[in-house]
Design goal:
The strands form 2 sheets. Strands 1, 2, 3, 4, 5, 6, 7 and 8 form an 8-stranded antiparallel sheet that branches. Mean pLDDT is 92; it is low at 1-12. This protein folds into 2 domains: 30-174, Electron Transport, Fmn-binding Protein, Chain A (Pnp Oxidase, Chain A), CATH 2.30.110.10; 181-265, Alpha-Beta Barrel (Split barrel-like), CATH 3.20.180. It contains 7 helices and 11 strands. It is elongated, with a radius of gyration of 21 Å. It is 27% helix and 32% strand. It has helices at residues 30-39, 78-85, 122-132, 169-174, 184-194, 196-205, 252-266, and strands spanning 43-49, 55-61, 63-65, 68-74, 88-94, 107-115, 145-160, 163-168, 214-221, 224-231, 234-241. It is α+β, with helices and mostly antiparallel strands and 267 residues long. InterPro entries: CREG_beta-barrel (IPR055343), DUF2470 (IPR019595), Haem_oxidase_HugZ-like_sf (IPR037119), Split_barrel_FMN-bd (IPR012349). Residues 185-256 form the DUF2470 domain.
Length: 267
């Protein structure tokens, strides 16, 4: 993953390097990050092309058929007419709640083309849309509304300042949303409120910072924890991986407890 692929590296803030390699630095791929963000909401900004070739941005809602967004668009809307004339489009999807600095948050852009669902997929596409947008039952079957399946050709994931990467449509289709994402905010809050000593021990034992004197969890995913670590040399960011990727949110408590126990033994 490219953590910084533009800008002036000399202008980036410095941080103390790890004193030894982390035990595991595995983290989600760009495709996995994108699938997780797409699955976490049902609202996006659609960019379509007018007959003159100008970009036209519209707020839309969507469901997911696998990883493919499903749109239900009025034929009378400008973006509906645009899609009917030119299937090329992109979707911008923003993750999570609003921040004081929105550019510090995660988001994705999906680029591709729209198409009518095949006859044997139409019922599944319709169900996917209604599952995400229940109020659509009032209009989904109107003759002046059209179901479109967005075929993803290219993905750009941005995780905040200096964190970004790309993926192909094939990589996106093969990936899956993070199963622990729905439980992550609550688990993160619990770890920081009640287990700060354990987080510091993890940073020392597994994160590469044996000189850590404090640590805060800033992110959780199926592969591990992101920590902000305070050391006498300054503030750093560490990755503490689980021994194996988690398959469900139900494994999160036992996995973090196991990391804490093993960190204590290492200390």
């Amino acid at each position: 993953m490219s953590l910084r692929d533009h800008g002036d590296p000399d202008g980036a803030p410095s941080a103390p390097p790890p004193l030894r390699p982390p035990t595991s630095s595995a983290r989600p791929s760009a495709a996995e990050q994108a699938r997780t963000i797409a699955a976490a909401t049902n609202a996006a900004t659609l960019a379509s092309l007018t007959p003159e070739g100008d970009p036209w941005a519209s707020l839309v809602v969507y469901g997911l058929l696998g990883g493919a967004p499903v749109l239900c668009v009025s034929n009378l809307a400008e973006h509906g007419r645009n899609l009917a004339a030119d299937p090329r489009a992109s979707l911008s999807i923003v993750a999570g709640a609003a921040r004081s600095d929105p550019l510090a948050g995660a988001r994705i852009t999906l680029a591709g083309t729209v198409a009518h669902p095949l006859a044997d997929h139409r019922d599944r596409a319709r169900a996917a849309y209604l599952n995400a947008v229940p109020e659509a039952r009032h209009y989904v079957d109107f003759t002046d509304f059209t179901l479109w399946v967005f075929n993803v050709h290219r993905v750009r994931w941005v995780g905040g300042y200096g964190r970004m990467d790309s993926a192909t449509g094939e990589e996106y289709a093969a990936a899956s949303p993070d199963p622990v994402a729905p439980a992550a905010p609550r688990a993160l809050a619990h770890l920081n409120a009640d287990h700060s000593d354990a987080l510091t021990a993890m940073a020392r034992a597994f994160g590469g910072y044996p000189d850590a004197d404090a640590a805060v969890c800033t992110g959780i995913d199926r592969y591990g924890l992101d920590l902000r670590v305070h050391t006498p040399r300054g503030v750093a960011y560490a990755r503490v991986g689980f021994p194996e990727p988690l398959q469900s949110a139900g494994q999160l408590r036992s996995a973090t407890a196991s990391l804490a126990r093993n960190a204590d033994r290492s200390g």
